[in-house]
Amino acid sequence: MKDLYQEILSQVTASGQMFETKEVINESGITFNEYVNFPDSIRGYLDFALLHADKECIVFDDERYTYKEVFEKSAQTANALINEGISKGDKVAICMQNNPEFIFAYLGIVGIGAVCVPLNSWWVPSEVIYGLEHSDAKLLFADQKRMQGLESLKDVKKIVTTYTPDPLFKSFSDFIIEQSISFPEIEIGRNDPATIYYTSGSTGKPKGVLSSQKAVIATLFSWACFSSIMKEVDNQKNPNTPPLLDEASAILLCVPLFHVTGSHAGMFMSILVGRKIVMMKKWDAGIALKLIEQEKISDITGVPTQTWELLNHPDRLNYDLSSLKTLGAGGAPRPAEHVKQLDSEFEARPGIGYGLSETNALGALGSGDEYVDHPQSTGRVVPPLTEIRIIDEN
User: Fold this and answer.
1) How far apart are CA 213 and CA 202, in angstroms?
2) Structural domains of the chain, ranges and CATH numbers in brackets
3) Which of the residues 76, 211, 327, 394 could staple to 176 if both were Cys, CB 3.0 to 4.6 A apart?
4) 66 pLDDT more than 60
């Protein structure tokens, strides 16, 4: 007999349902499943933002933007890129600390079918130059700190954020001024390239990982599918359990947007459900505690040390953290004892994710009782598209 999880999985992926799948064969003769109902491009996915038009989308220091404002500024960026000579398929890089303009730039780039190349903002100038040259980027969005050392780079147009204006470079606000607040009509297909992320998971120089429109959106729909399944599982066990992800949610974006955890789990998943994104420039456990109370944060996802620092911060008990629902982590396993302590000390439940830049962070997820009872597990394979095979060295 199927367990409850499998029963609900069968229901939500059945014909006519949101997460219905179909079997397809690609040009190489490989058979795989894909979603029936998801949009053909990330540009189409961005229309979900307008379902929450008046809801707060970004909070950054004293700046606040609704989903409508984010959509419009992203569209202005898209039109400015076209006016700058950027076309579908061209590579456009971003190298800056977390701030709203990172999101406007990212969404504007993918909104015209160009390829977004988020570069590690911790790189030194020679590494940034390597990423720009290796990816063949035609334009770079960066803050002043990341622009230092790039003045002589002639083959890449450079747009600097307004947070660190410099007369040597065009400012972001000047770049998008008077541009249309509607995205241009550009045909973008599921198999068109969307992003290049750089990963240093091997020896030598960082490797560029190319992902298609379909690959990015499939990850987001798969996470949403998993969330829907776990919500229903919890509801059947405890009808009063609140949903893991909804419009009342707010995520503390405490990891860099140049990483798939920040851009995909943080930014893109929020667009789907209208979740508020509270951005941090850099990690500080004390500031994080203050923001959790102030902004009623429900979700936090980072590396295991971040939630561990929250737990052990000397001022933790001085803050109201009752809004927290999930304490997500990835990038490394938590010690089993840490999982138990987090679960006992917080009202929120700890969770763990396993994925790769190559998979857009998709892989396995562990949450709730299953994770607490099996803290050394990476969790369940994220349904319904993911396939994982365990092999030995032979």
Assistant:
1) 25
2) 4-40+213-381 (3.40.50.980), 67-212 (3.40.50.980)
3) 76
4) yes
List the end-to-end C-alpha distance of the chain, in Å, as a whole number.
Answer: 35
Given pLDDT bands bounded at 50, 70 and 90, which one contains residue 1? very low
pTM higher than 0.90 for the full model?
yes
Cα 214 from Cα 34, distance rounded (Å): 9
- B/e letters for 112-123, b = 16+ CB within 10 Å, e = fewer, are bbbbbbbbbbeb
Alpha-carbon span 256 to 269, nearest angstrom:
15
Specify the amino acid at residue 383: P
Which of 336, 323, 257, 264 lies closest to 295 in space, CA to CA?
323
Q: Which residues, 6+ apart, have CB-to-CB distance to 130 below 8 Å?
A: 205, 206
DSSP-assigned beta bridge partners for residue 115? 91
Query: For residues 71-102, b (16+ Cβ closer than 10 Å) or e, as one string?
Result: bbbbbbbbbbbbeeebeeebbbbbbbbbbbbb
Position with higher pLDDT, 152 vs 252: 252
Q: To the nearest 10°, report the CA torsion of 264, 55, 294, 298.
A: -50
pLDDT reported for residue 163:
55
Q: Is the peptide bond before 383 cis (omega within 30 degrees of 0)?
A: no
Residue 354: burial class (beta carbons within 10 Å; 0-12, 13-18, 19+): buried
**What value does the mean pLDDT take over residues 370-377?**
95
Q: What confidence tens digit (pLDDT) does each residue in 284-325 have?
A: 999 999 999 999 999 999 999 999 999 999 999 999 999 999
Residues sharing a CB contact under 8 Å with residue 374, sequence separation 6 or more, in sequence order:
366
